[in-house]
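Let us work through a complete example step by step.
Step 1: write down the sequence.
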Amino acid sequence: MIPFENTWPYEQFGRDIYFTSCPMCDASNVLLPLRPQDLESLADGVKKLLVLPSCRNKITFVEADRDYLLANRPLRSTRQGKPL
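Step 2: predict the structure and record it as tokens.
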């Protein structure tokens, strides 16, 4: 079972991939340094270290589907409803 607290939703508009809010600093509309082929690699199980441009925090993503990115650590707290 995939731990929900390790996931974060993303949006794709054309070739741009972004978070509507950053899981670390809560900045809005953060354009990610990812391309659609990176999402395909993540779906195939290739890990990807991502430096968030809004706050320079590093997150390692281990998987992706059409709606969510899966990190190797919690990005949100399910008890409080806020990101960690």
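Step 3: interpret the result. Helices lie at 36-43.
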